[in-house]
Amino acid sequence: MRKKELYAHVLDFFERTMDATETELDFQDNFQLIVAVVLSAQCTDKRINQVTPRLFADYPTPEAMAEATPEVIYDYIRSVSYPNNKAKHLVGLAQKLVKDFHGEVPSTLEELTSLPGVGRKTANVVQAVAFHKAALAVDTHVFRVSHRLGLVPKSATTPYAVEMALMKHIPTEKVAAGHYWILLHGRYTCLARKPKCSSCGLSDVCPSRKLFPDC
């Protein structure tokens, strides 16, 4: 199957079988979104959704969080991964939003990645969800599934290389949704250690299926 045909087949399958096209994180505005995404690095969305209600209730705006200290924020997020670093990032992020962006979350990649704790992946999530841009975040799920399905070449060994390869073939209007389709497929079906190949609707075109004979 040629690359163009593979992409068309995979995207058509996801479009027919998946309802979700956005993050599973809970948020009410762009500030809450970026805070939740920063917290979600190397942590499950379920855990973040358990932590953020109390945090957002007490610190609902950049102005409020900018007045806090990392030590105070740590108490709210102690159960997430790397809470010390994330507490520092959140306070610094809020302070920079207030100082440089009038308390508003910016929309460009350059501006977003200037914020503490915000890398390209986080920035792409915010661009796609908050500003409906054709931005594609590559996390561990997207990286793994893209390689297993043969959507990207083996030479795409970095998240950026995978992002560029996917962006080359996914139609602009499907980029944001495509990211979540691939991500959710990795989260619930194409698991890292034991993928559910027997119940996967893409196993017939997956070049990695033979690597998991017992799944």
Strand content: under 5%
The CATH homologous superfamily of the largest domain is called Hypothetical protein, domain 2
Low-confidence stretches: none
Helix/sheet category:
mainly alpha
Biggest pleated-sheet summary? none
CATH class of the largest domain: Mainly Alpha
The global form is elongated
Tell me the count of domains. 2
CATH architecture name of the largest domain? Orthogonal Bundle
Q: Distance N terminus to C terminus?
A: 24 Å
Helix content: 55-70%
The helix-strand sequence is HHHHHHHHHHH
CATH topology of the largest domain: Endonuclease III, domain 1
The rounded Rg comes to 18 Å
Per DSSP E runs of 2 or more residues, the count of β-strands stands at 0
Mean pLDDT: 94
What would you say this structure looks like, in words?
It is a single chain. This protein is mainly α. It folds into two domains: 3-21 and 138-211, Endonuclease Iii, domain 2, CATH 1.10.1670; 30-131, Endonuclease III, domain 1. It contains eleven helices and no strands. It has helices at 3-17, 30-39, 45-58, 62-66, 70-77, 83-101, 109-112, 120-131, 140-148, 159-169, 175-188. Helix 2 (30-39) packs antiparallel against helix 8 (120-131), helix 5 (70-77) packs across helix 6 (83-101) and helix 9 (140-148) crosses helix 11 (175-188). It is elongated. The protein starts with a helix and ends in a 27-residue tail after the last helix. 37% of the residues are buried.
